[in-house]
Amino acid sequence: MKVHEIKTRVRYQETDQMGVVYYANFFIYFEMGRTEYLRNLGLPYSELEKGQIYFPVTEAHCRFRLPAYYDDVLIVQTWVSELKHATVEFSYKVTREGDNSLIAEGSTKLACLNANRKPAPMPEKLKKLLQ
Questions:
Q1: Considering 68, 72, 79, 121, which has the largest number of Cβ atoms within 10 A of its Cβ?
Q2: Would you state the pLDDT for residue 81?
Q3: Where are the domains positioned within the chain?
Q4: Interatomic CA distance for residues 42 and 95, integer angstroms
Q5: What is the mean pLDDT of residues 16-34?
Q6: pLDDT beyond 90 at 57
Q7: Rounded to whole angstroms, how far apart are CA atoms 95 and 108?
Q8: CB–CB of 55/34 below 8 Å?
């Protein structure tokens, strides 16, 4: 299992009135992790879309363990947890740098679509890279 890791610093605008990272921002962190995972494989989203391959998110889950605060440095780990004929599931783990506290964990499932935005089998080249 290949795990890719990025770091991001919590910005003020990502927090709510209580000074805690607003829950929906974790899905943005997940997307950051996923896009950098693919870029690291040599397949940025822009290249996939030039090849008329699209990957919309069909499911998203997040379990919050501890709050994250303004100026925390978060480590987002991303890996492929399930690969099927036309779908891929990515899993994520978000920890705080310094104390390694588990902040959140989750997953997103994406479906492969063709140029007509219809479900399609995942291209073999992509499937091999994700395995």
A1: 68
A2: 97
A3: 4-130
A4: 26
A5: 97
A6: yes
A7: 18
A8: no
Catalytic residue among 16, 71, 72, 99: 16
CA angle 77, 127, 119 (to 5 degrees): 105
Catalytic (active site) residue 71:
no
Q: Does the pLDDT at position 90 exceed 90? A: yes
Residue type at position 87: T
CATH 3.10.129.10 fits 4-130, yes or no: yes
> For 1-131, where are the E strands, in sequence order?
4-9, 57-64, 73-83, 87-96, 102-111
Phi and psi torsions of 46, nearest 5°: -60, -35
pTM greater than 0.85 (yes/no): yes
| Per-position b or e across 2-25, b if 16+ CB within 10 A of its CB | eebebebebeeebbeeeebbeeeb
